[in-house]
Write a structure and sequence with these properties.
The protein has 33 helices and 26 strands. It is an alpha/beta fold. Strands 3, 4, 5, 6, 7, 8, 9 and 10 form an 8-stranded mixed sheet that branches. Helix 10 packs antiparallel against helix 11, helix 13 packs across helix 26 and helix 26 packs antiparallel against helix 30. Bound molecules: adenosine-5'-triphosphate.
Length: 884
């Protein structure tokens, strides 16, 4: 069977496994390629057929996916259903009005999401990576090697990999030299894996591996993994979303747990559906019984149902989120998932790492000391030797050693005097790195540097004044004290130890890191950011508990926490997290603020336990293997400098990895949610009031109090005014606590302010009926215009009163007053409403101009309504109830 059709390989695992072990000639044949690589023409042809070699799905499908998520909202479903009912009942004007509402909300929401996707792509484009590919200019011509963007790779391309490279696609190794690959992104397996062309003996699953068979194929390098050391030539088998990582990323995307915002939106949707289900049939029954015209009653009931739905909610939410996203990007925060802004508002626990978030991220070498704490350069010399030969990527500590010790001739001299034999790279679980070198023939020196807690137990001897002496218990305690004393001053300490071995041909592994001689310690400073304490205080003042999750030593963690003002208490270590079952862990995380010596797996478990305990959790991470925790958290946050995979998993990307930026972003999230909640609560209560008025009017009037089309135009006008709400101010009080969607509060709010507004509607009916004598079916157009104006004006005005919890004249003080856009929109809509019965549209809306005598009464009713709303608000708040 030909598995390469038009250069596209259709993948299932058995085929991958087959290609993993295939002889080179079969491999190239199956991929329609050759060891000299593809021709440029063939590569162009294949790239036209295959999707780009990107982790994300093809652009087209992202747009479709976004469209799908924009449509999938309970309000859209509800309104579409009501639109269908209108059509069935023959009211096309009603159906069109509802369709416009639905279309507007879907398009706006979709547009916002696509725009933010584009912004993120723009950000990613700033990070350039290239891959070396071997291609021929044409058939029969010699191949050349050149650098191309990873997106340009196609199945069949021959690539050359070297130390420090990110593997750009799933590729079968055809030749390798001491190839060591970090596969932790795929399998959680933290030890590096040796890779090379397949051996004649089939691969066996290594013990203790967590990644499953695929990741254990030792002849395949997978996209997203990185080359720790060595070189390789490989042929690309599969690219982009079809790689192993691509499918995992896709699964993880789908597996994302529902966030607190999503839960809130769903709950609001259901509360409104319940109200509608109760109210619409009642309106139908009352109106049908009184008028006897059941068809008209049915139309009216559907219009009431539309009126009861805050139909512009998706639009207002989208507009709010968009404004929030723009504001955040000005504050160095890029949003990758719009809803994350609302989740940010609900966040009550923020898990942060230490380096860069709390500290200045400028690690500097400080000193070198012997095991007893006396100044001595030997530890630094060994550490430099180890870093010099280390091929796994240098981190900040390594760079600090190089900056300080790689003086003019040092690299040359080191290369001349020593030869590298082997390496056991650093990883977050081992918390140490080892290099083996040869100085004298017949003798190897193993040098290990790392967390003192990891190194000291592996030492049996120590250096003292140039001598190697046995490490007594007292010496060990003394060394521990030295580490602690420096760590207590916030200094990061690496222990350095060495050991001599007779030269051998076989490689070295962890089993050789024992019976070491402790050479001493090197110290580093990474000062706490000046702004960190202020930011931590701001977060605490706003009800967010900051927890530190660091791979570093407990003393340093405690010191940094104390400097930043985070209460320390009991410090929990990674090993304790590992030993605790889920229930124990929930209790542990509830009382702990500092977790030290934790690896990425522990971090993910801590986040899950916090979520299980009901918290809305933010998590800051930047490693490839922080992906799980980033996805598990309600808000995953990564710095711009993080790996692509981590950024892909994050909801927020910080262009400046600083806690202050995060604190500001959190306040912005609450402001956004505050303005959204204003709309939901005030609108739902006004609509409930309308329905109650309609019920009373239906039972008492010989005609409809308002026609369905009038009811919906009134709704549209009101909603148009509310489009300015995202630009409104929010009470300081509201911003001070984590906020989630609160539907319990919504019901109470509706039941208080809905009937209140209804009272003033009834007063309007009374004025129209008894005082102005508009009391016959022939005059219904005038009556309906009267209620249309009063209803619209009272709804718009009440937003200005209820939008803040300030009472009395405070509403008009600078912090309580509405923002200018909100005020301007309200005035504009009030004017339109007042002029409508006199306009050209009056006929289409079946309204008649009102007698001027109506307006003093209107003024009095509106004034009394505002005063009454203030009084009720004050009482409502005195009852200790949550406001918006
Ligand atoms: N280059 C290195 N060589 C040897 N050991 C190292 C190296 N870098 C770090 N370590 C040790 O491993 C420990 C854990 O480091 P890791 O990078 O996992 O911490 P982290 O979680 O990133 O810390 P942070 O919270 O500060 O960001 C360090 O405390 C240190 O003792």
């Amino acid at each position: 069977m030909n598995r390469v059709a038009n250069g596209v390989v259709s993948w299932v695992d058995p085929e991958l496994r087959e290609l993993a072990t295939a002889a080179p000639i079969t491999l190239f044949q199956r991929l329609s390629s050759s060891p000299k690589g593809l021709t440029e023409q063939e590569a162009t042809h294949r790239s036209a057929v295959c999707a780009d070699n990107r982790l994300q799905r093809h652009e087209g499908s992202v747009w479709v996916g976004r469209a799908r998520s924009a449509v999938a909202s309970p309000f859209v479903a509800l309104l579409t259903g009501l639109g269908v009912v209108f059509t069935v009942l023959g009211d096309l004007r009603g159906a069109v009005t509802v369709s416009v509402m639905v279309l507007l909300s879907v398009v706006l929401r979709w547009w916002q999401q696509v725009r933010s996707d584009q912004a993120l792509r723009g950000l990613r484009a700033l990070v350039t990576t290239t891959t070396t590919v071997r291609r021929r200019p044409g058939d029969g011509l010699a191949p050349t090697e050149r650098e191309v963007p990873p997106e340009d790779l196609v199945p069949g391309d021959v690539i050359v990999l070297a130390t420090g490279d990110l593997v750009p696609a799933d590729a079968r190794v055809v030749a390798a030299n001491a190839l060591l690959v970090d596969q932790s992104a795929l399998s959680g397996e933290t030890l590096p894996v040796r890779k090379g062309p397949p051996s004649p003996v089939p691969d066996r699953q290594p013990r203790g591996r967590t990644g499953g068979e695929i990741a254990d194929l030792s002849s395949v390098c997978f996209a997203g993994t990185s080359i720790l050391s060595g070189t390789a030539t490989a042929v690309v088998i599969t690219t982009g979303p079809r790689t192993y990582l691509g499918t995992m990323a896709e699964q993880a995307r789908h597996a994302r747990p529902e966030s607190s915002f999503d839960r809130g939106v769903r709950a609001v949707g259901w509360t409104l559906v319940r109200f509608m289900l109760v109210m619409a049939p009642i309106v139908l029954a009352v109106n049908g019984t009184v008028t006897g015209d059941w068809a008209q009653a049915a139309l009216f009931a559907v219009a009431v149902a539309v009126g009861l739905t805050p139909e512009m909610l998706p639009v207002i939410v989208a507009a709010n989120l968009a404004r929030g996203a723009v504001h955040l990007s000005r504050q160095q925060v890029v949003i990758t998932r719009l809803n994350a802004i609302q989740d940010l508002a609900g966040m009550d626990v923020l898990c942060v790492d230490k380096t860069g978030t709390l500290t200045q991220d400028r690690v500097a070498y400080a000193h070198s000391i012997d095991p007893a704490g006396r100044p001595d350069g030997e530890a630094a010399e060994y550490a430099y030797l180890a870093v010099h030969f280390q091929t796994c990527p240098h981190n900040r500590l390594d760079e600090a050693i190089i900056d300080q010790l790689a003086t003019d001739d040092a690299p040359l001299v080191t290369d001349a005097a020593f030869t590298k034999i082997d390496e056991i790279p650093f990883d977050h679980t081992r918390r140490r790195a080892t290099v083996v070198v040869r100085q004298q023939p017949g003798e190897h020196i193993l040098i290990t540097k790392g967390d003192p807690d990891q190194i000291l137990p592996r030492c049996t001897h120590a250096r003292r004044a140039g001598e190697v002496v046995e490490l007594s218990e007292a010496d060990r305690r003394e060394a521990g004290e030295v580490v602690r004393a420096y760590a207590d001053h916030g200094m990061r300490i690496l222990a350095v130890a060495a050991c001599e071995y007779p030269a051998r041909l076989s490689g070295y592994d962890e089993g050789d890191e024992h019976d070491l001689v402790l050479v001493g310690f090197v110290g580093f400073v990474d000062p706490v950011r000046d702004s960190a304490a202020d930011a931590a205080r701001t977060l605490a003042d706003h009800g967010v508990t900051v927890k530190i999750l660091t791979g570093d030593n407990r003393h340093v963690a405690a010191q940094v926490a104390a400097q930043v003002g985070i209460p320390v208490g009991e410090i929990v270590l990674g090993t304790q997290v590992e030993d605790a079952d889920d229930a124990q862990l929930r209790r542990l995380v509830a009382r702990t603020t500092v977790f030290a010596q934790v690896n990425p797996v522990h971090k993910a478990r801590i986040v899950t336990a916090l979520r299980d305990a009901g918290h809305a959790v933010g998590f800051v991470g930047d490693g490839v293997n922080d992906t799980v925790a980033l996805r598990t958290a309600d808000v995953g946050i990564a710095a711009d400098t993080a790996t692509d995979v981590a950024k892909d998993a994050a909801d927020l990307i910080l262009l400046d990895k600083d806690l202050t930026v995060l604190a500001r972003a959190m306040v912005e999230g609450r402001r956004t949610l505050g303005n959204t909640m204003k709309y939901v609560k005030i609108t739902a209560s006004s609509n409930l009031g309308n329905v109650l008025s309609v019920l009373v009017a239906s039972a008492t009037l010989p005609f409809l109090p308002m026609l369905p089309i009038q009811l919906m135009v009134q709704n549209l006008l009101y909603d148009a005014a509310q489009l300015a709400l995202p630009w409104d101010r929010v009470d300081q009080d509201y911003l001070r606590r984590p906020r989630r969607w609160d539907t319990g509060g919504l019901t109470r709010f509706m039941l208080t302010f809905g009937p209140l507004s209804s009272l003033f509607d009834l007063a309007t009916f009374a004025v129209l009926w008894w005082l102005l004598d508009i009391d016959s079916p022939a005059e219904q157009a005038m009556f309906q215009a009267g209620w249309f104006i009063e209803g619209l004006l009272s709804q718009v005005l009440i937003v200005l009163v209820l939008r803040t919890r300030q009472t009395g004249m405070q509403v008009w003080t600078p912090c309580g007053a509405p923002s200018r856009p909100v005020l301007a929109a309200a005035v504009a809509v009030v004017l339109v409403g007042l002029l409508l019965p006199w306009s050209q549209l009056a006929g289409a809306l079946r309204m008649a101009a009102l007698p001027l005598g109506y307006f003093p009464w209107l003024l009095a009713i509106l004034f009394s309504y505002v005063v009454a709303a203030q009084v009720v608000k004050a009482r409502y708040l005195r009852g200790g109830r949550a406001w918006l």
